[in-house]
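Entry 14: structure prediction run for Diaminopimelate epimerase. Input pasted below.
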Amino acid sequence: MELKLIKGHGSGNDFLLIDEWTYGYIFTEENRHDLALALCNRETGIGADGIVFVMESKHADAKMRIFNSDGSEASMCGNGLRLHGRYVLDKLRRDEILVETNKADLYVKRDGEVYEGVPAYRVEISPVLFDLDALPMTIGKDRLFNEIVPELSDDIRFSAVAVPNPHLIAVGGRDLIASGEQKRIAEMLNGENQITPDGVNVSFVHPIQKGIIYVRTFERGVGFTNACGTAMSASTLTTCQLGLNELEEPVVVYNNGGKVRCEVHQHETGRYSIDLIGNGTYMFEAVVQLDLDTPGHFQLKDQKAFTEQTAYGQLRKEVELYLSENVF
Ligand SMILES: N[C@@H](CCC[C@H](N)C(=O)O)C(=O)O
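Run finished. Output tokens:
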């Protein structure tokens, strides 16, 4: 069959966008898993952190499903939702839509520019759950906020939150980022283990100054990525709870692939939601010729690059300079 796709990214977290809805592709669950494994491989495939599927929704404007590069499905993806949302906003010629995801219906809105020539999209990150059962995480307690978990480290404090995909967050100085501990702990928690049997996204956060943080994430199902939208949202929330940032105030979040803005809201019921605002940039479109039974043997045809990457390249250069002066 011939499969049309767009490769794009949110903060350098790159995805293949496949529109099942418009093109009427019929996939089984196994097909989606196999496509992610085959096409996301950076050596033998096209290369990406995951596949974002655009689907029809029975009650919302569209539906998103996200598969990590290892073929596993995630319940949510913040950077992927911006890319998906941009595609659907353009398709429906709207400024705001509601997107069905695995566990919630979330809004996506156009929101000015994140940088000159780089349009921004605001997406809702919700629900926010603190019970460790929601991750799941088993350490003999119900919640984890800024505490040492002896099974993980003697001196790094962790907080856990599901948005609703699972996140473990440590906040500290430049030495924490440079420690090498993130890889060790994340690999342990994403291998066979009793603490996080489904794996977990692990982020190390460096507060640069009030209103500005840096986040690096080891993603479940992928490994280190340039950025993870749900992780940056969850990390901003944790810094607010620690008193380092303010609720309702924009926080600039630097990452290895660019920067976004996050705003944490607390509602009357006490529940939190987070707005994640950043780019959804297209890199190229192409047609993939493959047999769904053997997606590893594919042919990439009619590849056409989008020029909008140039403006993003400028943003990225500025971010690299900022990070070299303030983080590394
Ligand atoms: N990069 C994503 C999150 C993708 C899913 C994650 N790896 C998981 O398995 O939970 C984002 O931008 O949020």
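Notes: The chain has two domains: 2-116+280-324, 132-279. Will compare against the previous run tomorrow.
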